[in-house]
Amino acid sequence: MAFLHNKPDMDVPEEERRGQKRKISLTSCDVCEAEEAKYRCPNCLKCSCSLPCVKQHKLRTGCSGVRDRTAFVPLSHFSDLHLLSDYRFLEETGRVTDRPSRDILLHTRTRHSYSAMLLLRNAKAAKVNLKILPKSFSRRRENTSIYNKTERKLYWHLKLVFPQSSAEYTDRVPEDRVLEKILSDYVHPTESDPVKRQNLKAYVVTPLDQLGVFMKSEQRLPNSLKYHELDLKKSLRENLMFKTVVEYPELHVAVKEHCEEYRSHVSEPQGAPENHKHTTRTEKETTEQPELEEGEIQSEEEEDNCVQEEEDGDIKIPDIESHLGDLDGPTVQNAVMSSCLDVEHAEQ
């Protein structure tokens, strides 16, 4: 009984010793240096006492708070926990490397479908630089443009943006339809759809000749936004010639008061190169100029003649007939006869 009665007394010093050991092992907070530390950062092993101190520690040092799983551990400190951590790290690495082999999008064929190839071929015949995006793009899934073999013409998926009414509409229209007729289906005071006419009040009250249609210029450098201004009197095919279209054309319709916002970003028209004849003539003039030998300097008189020829725009051709006429002169004939007599004496 005495032994049982004295057992709690024996346990008291042990508990106090453990409490003292716990207090000794913990240090003060490395952030505020006032409270007792309760947490230790897995990355830099700094001690903290509360959540505000943890946030302040990350803000000051830029520490991520994530343990470095590849840090070196001496063999004397290596334990089963380190072995398990390394094993799980290798498993995670294997999953990451195996993920691309199971990705469906990465193993799909890059070749376009037959309908897309047909669309590309006929767009090229219409002098339109059409770009087809991968299937994962939403713009690719929205595109409903087709080529009708029976009618032998393209049907474009057309997107019309009306910024003054904050409205957008999409429709499939043939390439030979005039742009003015396409807009009349939306903004005509009597013939357009009543629901669309109600949403586009700012455009309905504006005459068609006071509306501007613009298309964004694709494949440009960043921060260089440009627009192509389209002609309402021409068909969609004529307006898209020599232009780049990504999947389908997207047209911005603006009223007269807002057209200048787009015209300030109007790009130069794309088409056949201009001044081709002038360029060819300039190259010909350059090639026909007399070449100077190494170290030779052109005289001032010759330089003035070249400048004068460039100003006149014509190349001076030497008078060949006059040179040919000199062959009939007596001097040339006497020289020829003397050379023939010399040859006869040499043979004898």
UniProtKB/TrEMBL annotation:
GO biological process: box C/D snoRNP assembly; maturation of LSU-rRNA from tricistronic rRNA transcript (SSU-rRNA, 5.8S rRNA, LSU-rRNA); snoRNA localization
Compositionally biased spans, kind Acidic residues: 288-313
Superkingdom, taxonomy of origin: Eukaryota
PROSITE patterns: ZF_HIT (PS51083)
Keywords linked to the UniProt accession: Isopeptide bond, Metal-binding, Phosphoprotein, Ribosome biogenesis, Ubl conjugation, Zinc, Zinc-finger
Functional summary from the UniProt entry: Required for box C/D snoRNAs accumulation involved in snoRNA processing, snoRNA transport to the nucleolus and ribosome biogenesis.
Pfam families: BCD1, zf-HIT
Signal peptide as annotated in the record: none
Region spans: Disordered: 264-331
Name of the protein described by the UniProt record: Box C/D snoRNA protein 1
One GO cellular component, as annotated: pre-snoRNP complex
Family named by the database record: Belongs to the BCD1 family.
Source organism per UniProt: Hemibagrus wyckioides
GO molecular function, one term: zinc ion binding
Chain intervals with Basic and acidic residues compositional bias: 274-287, 314-326
Domain (HIT-type): residue spans on this chain: 29-63
Binding partners and assembly: Interacts with FBL, SNU13, NOP58, NUFIP1, RUVBL1, RUVBL2 and TAF9. Interacts (via HIT-type zinc finger) with the RUVBL1/RUVBL2 complex in the presence of ADP.
